[in-house]
Design brief:
Layout (H helix, E strand, L loop, with lengths): L15 E3 L3 E4 L16 E3 L12 E3 L17 E9 L2 E7 L10 H8 L9 E7 L6 E7 L9 H14 L6 E2 L2 E3 L2 E7 L5 E4 L25 E5 L2 E9 L3 E8 L12 H9 L9 E9 L2 E8 L3 E3 L3 H13 L6 E6 L2 E7 L6 E5 L2 E9 L1
Parallel strand pairs: 6-7, 8-10, 15-16, 17-19
Antiparallel strand pairs: 1-2, 2-3, 4-22, 5-6, 5-22, 7-8, 9-11, 10-11, 11-12, 12-21, 13-14, 14-15, 16-17, 17-18, 19-20, 20-21
The structure holds the ligand N[C@@H](CCC[C@H](N)C(=O)O)C(=O)O.
């Protein structure tokens, strides 16, 4: 099904956004508004552009007493919110009334398309909790595959739930995911700290066919990509990650120089990774400051990967390259990651922001 238009409002840009067909004015307090207080404030320049026309509508948040777009329930339309965590962007769907995703994986692929759809790295569904949890999160990657977890996505999930439920201040939820129980906490400053649980290190559970050491872990192993040997460590955060700091014979990667589009797919589809893999290319800036670029399974090069940042910290500690609490710089910004010795859990802290709201045909 075709989609007429998709618009994003980067939060770092000025408050007025000029597009060829419409102007959208955003309130400065955009990140703190309530979904049930949203009303469009759109100036239509081109009379041929109909904001709520045949296929898609766009609303910029300003305070009002009218009903939210997300409160409307016309049949045939899918209402969504677009969020991002450090530029890793997602279409969030209120699926609290059902444990079946409101759209298929095929439709998710269409909606994630940056030219013919809304544009996103994935689609996330907010579903009823199971096993005593508050909510369940499911996600489709932009290629339609379903991963177990998403670190940036779960921060967006927490902010979206807070707005759907009109909750304020410091909040914490329990969320059932394919990676087990995950607990995000919305902090007073708007950032979200997530208890990401324990890393999985057993080769068969990651899964990887790379040779394991005596602890059954894959640390400082070697992976052959077209004759180049990459030193890799493998970690699962519920989803698989392959982390590399160097090629054989070199000291430290310079991540800005990598041709990610060429090498990323070769890691992702390597025969050593039966469930494919996410890959983090890491440069050590200091023992508490790491820089990474990521090639994601099912989404390609993204601006950030939360589970990847957690996995790479574990790899850096296991390889003796870093402390347990580090700042991780990603193309879209920074995350603070801690692998706590007392409980073996990983804690990720970072932002998540609403971008725009809209509706498309189901
Ligand atoms: N960007 C996400 C990870 C999303 C899932 C990943 N592509 C996979 O297939 O495992 C994150 O922030 O963790």
């Amino acid at each position: 099904m075709a989609i007429a238009a998709a618009i994003s409002l980067p939060l770092t840009s000025p408050t007025r956004h000029s597009l060829s067909s419409i102007n959208i004015v955003r309130t400065p307090s955009f990140s703190t508004f309530q979904l049930n207080l949203i009303k469009p404030k759109i100036t239509v320049k081109n009379p041929n552009f109909r904001v709520r026309a045949s296929s898609m509508s766009i609303e910029a948040p300003v305070q009002s007493s009218s009903a939210s777009l997300l409160d409307r329930r016309e049949s045939g339309f899918l209402h969504f919110a677009k969020y991002h965590g450090l530029g890793n962007d997602f279409i969030l769907i209120d699926n609290r009334d059902s444990s079946e995703p409101r759209i298929t994986s095929e439709r998710a692929v269409q909606l994630c398309d940056r030219n013919f759809g809304i544009g996103a790295d994935g689609v996330i569904f907010v579903m009823p909790g199971i096993n005593g949890t508050d909510y369940t999160m499911r996600i489709f990657n932009s290629d339609g595959s379903e991963p177990e977890m998403c670190g940036n996505g779960i921060r967006c999930f927490a902010k979206f739930v807070a707005q759907l439920e009109s909750l304020h201040g410091r909040l914490s939820f329990t969320i059932h995911t394919g990676a087990g129980l995950i607990v995000p906490e919305v902090l007073d400053d708007g950032n979200v700290r997530v208890d990401m649980g324990e890393p999985i290190l057993q080769a068969s559970d990651i899964p990887t066919r790379l040779p394991a050491n005596k602890d059954h872990c894959v640390v400082k192993s070697e992976l052959d990509i077209d004759g180049v040997i990459w030193n890799v460590t493998c970690v699962s955060m519920g989803n698989p990650h392959c982390i590399t700091f160097s090629t054989k014979g070199s000291q430290n990667l310079k991540v800005d120089e990598l041709k990610l589009d060429e090498i990323g797919p070769k890691f992702e589809h390597h025969e050593m990774f039966p469930a494919r893999t996410n890959t983090e290319f890491v440069q050590v800036l200091s023992r508490s400051h790491l820089k990474m670029r990521v090639w994601e399974r099912g989404a390609g090069a993204t601006l950030a990967c939360g589970t990847g940042a957690c996995a790479l910290l574990v790899a850096a500690v296991l390889e003796g390259r870093a402390e347990r609490n580090c700042r991780v710089d990603l193309p879209g910004g920074s995350l603070q990651i801690e692998w706590r010795e007392e409980d073996n859990h990983i804690y990720m802290t970072g932002p998540a922001e609403a971008v725009f709201f809209g509706s498309v045909p189901l």
